[in-house]
Design goal:
Blueprint (H helix, E strand, L loop, with lengths): L5 H11 L4 H8 L6 E2 L5 H4 L4 E8 L2 E8 L10 H17 L3 E7 L8 H16 L6 E10 L1 H8 L2 E5 L4 E3 L3 H8 L5 H5 L1 H8 L4 E3 L2 H16 L26 H8 L6 E3 L7 E8 L2 E8 L10 H17 L2 E8 L6 H6 L1 H11 L6 E10 L1 H5 L9 E4 L4 E3 L3 H8 L10 H13 L5 H6 L5 E2 L5 H12 L18
Parallel strand pairs: 3-4, 4-5, 5-6, 5-7, 6-8, 11-12, 12-13, 13-14, 13-15, 14-16
Antiparallel strand pairs: 1-2, 2-3, 9-10, 10-11
Length: 480
């Protein structure tokens, strides 16, 4: 139980720049709306390892629970697991989101089998309600074992830059089991999880910012926010005409979606594709956009895995998907093949088979399999638009030449001249937006200045959920 006096514990948290579980719960909800559920008052809550509550976030009801590290390291035993399962049941009945504020050493090992059984039921309930109620989690401090998995099972999770650590176990246990010497930061730090493992969806600079970020996402979930149009800007001026010149796709996103509504997910992971939640004409959407300033915007293993998870999240939450397409193709290399790009691509196709609308806008270029992945009509997209100068084809001229005339087949007496002439001839093959429109790959050519209005009108026309022919099935593939 509690081995450290409360006042000493609070003083330590203050020195570290951390909040208590009480301050976290109160800071999440609108002022004066936090109502405790499993205990009568805060004095009783300080004797518990888990406290559940309900309150309002931007005037809308929400459930939350927080672990208290002062009590047995915030560990989750049978009683704590039952408290969380009961809260999830309330959330399911009322179709309200749940937020987990975590700082915990994991399972309560002193309970042995009781803790194992309790946490098994907890994980089962979380997975059962995935896609039924939104589940958010924040690793506010150390999160080991069970606590780390509570965050991993959530739809979205946050870490705090300086003092969040999430891992299956501690460096001491790893050293004992394997002999490896590892530090907390490289094992489970926020920066590592944001850029390497893909565990962390968001990283906040401090706890207050983390709570504010969660509140913003919950506000988007409400679906009826007032909105402001973005600051007027000539979209044409944001996009270089030459398809090889990189630019930051975020500037285009901000010029299209409602003002200050874009919340980027997995910012530092799979960076050749930008994913984020936003609002468009007051309607919540998910945005997937190729980032030409990172590896030319190619689709690689990491970005495909990122996109799969994000598309499934948006489908579960009922957010329409908007694709901003500027992609040279799939990344080709031995490393990508070994990393599993074929498997990642297959999982992506399953993941984007959604019930929510899917609309694509081709900005400058889109070649080969990447066009199919970025929501071609024939692959299930609802609408495909293109800017007038967009290039759409099976592959660029150089790649087409390499495929057709591999080195072993090149017998011309002047290979260099033949190559140049062949590539020049391939450049004459129509790959512009007009040709794609005539071939039925594009529904309409639009001017960049029309983008926001066209997307808003299209979403209104399609409605919240397109009619799709579905067959009863049990899916063998899940996004990673």
């Amino acid at each position: 139980m509690n081995h450290v006096p409360k006042d000493r514990y609070l003083a330590k948290l203050a020195r570290l720049g951390q909040l208590s579980f009480e301050a976290r719960l109160i800071g999440l909800f609108d002022p004066g709306t936090c109502e405790l559920l499993n205990v009568p008052d805060w004095d009783a809550a300080w004797e518990q390892a888990v406290t559940s509550a309900r309150g309002l976030v931007h005037g809308r009801p929400c459930f939350a629970y927080a672990t208290n590290f002062l009590v047995d390291g915030g560990t989750v035993g049978a009683k704590e697991a039952s408290t969380i399962v009961a809260l999830l049941g309330l959330a399911a009945r009322e179709r309200l989101p749940v937020v987990a504020l975590l700082h915990s050493n994991g399972a309560r090992v002193t309970e042995r089998y009781d803790a194992m059984a309790g946490n098994g039921m907890l994980f089962k309930e979380m997975t059962r309600l995935s896609g039924v109620v939104p589940q958010l989690a924040a690793c506010m401090g150390l999160c080991l074992g069970v606590a780390a998995y509570l965050a991993a099972l959530a739809d979205l999770n946050w870490m705090v830059a300086e003092h969040s650590h999430a891992a299956t176990t501690s460096p001491a246990v790893i050293r004992l089991a394997t002999g490896q010497q590892v530090k907390w930061g490289e094992l489970g730090g926020a920066r590592m999880h944001a850029s390497q493992s893909g565990f962390a969806h968001f990283v906040a600079q401090h706890e207050a910012a983390c709570l504010a970020d969660i509140r913003r996402v919950l506000d988007l979930l409400g679906g009826d926010r007032p909105f402001e149009a973005p600051v007027t800007v000539a979209i044409e001026s944001l996009i270089p005409r030459a398809p090889s010149i990189p630019y930051d796709i975020r500037t285009l996103i901000d010029a299209i979606v409602d003002q200050a509504s874009f919340q980027e997910v997995h910012k530092d992971w799979g960076q050749s594709l930008v994913c984020g939640l936003a609002q468009l004409g007051g309607r919540p959407i998910g945005v997937l956009a190729n980032q030409s300033s990172v590896r030319g915007g190619v689709l690689d293993t990491q970005s495909l895995r990122k996109a799969s998870r994000f598309a499934q999240l948006c489908n579960a939450w009922g957010f329409a998907l908007v694709y901003l397409v500027d992609v040279p193709g799939l990344m080709v290399s031995m490393e990508e093949e070994q990393a599993g790009i074929l498997d990642a691509g297959a999982i992506f196709f399953h993941a984007v088979d959604t019930d929510v609308p899917r609309i694509a806008v081709v900005i400058r270029k889109c070649y080969g399999g990447a066009f199919v992945m970025m929501q071609a009509r024939q692959a299930g997209g609802d609408r495909v638009y293109a800017y007038p100068n967009a290039q759409i084809g099976i592959a660029g001229p150089e790649v087409t030449f390499a495929i057709v005339h591999g080195k072993e087949h090149l017998t011309h007496s002047e290979p260099k001249d033949f190559r140049n002439a062949s590539i020049q001839a391939l450049r004459q093959v129509p790959t512009d937006a007009e040709a794609a429109l005539a071939a039925g790959l594009v529904d309409r050519i639009i001017e960049p200045s029309e983008t926001r209005a066209v997307l808003i009108d299209t979403l209104a026309e399609i409605g919240p959920s397109p009619t799709r022919i579905r067959h009863p099935r049990k899916h063998p593939n899940l996004p990673v």
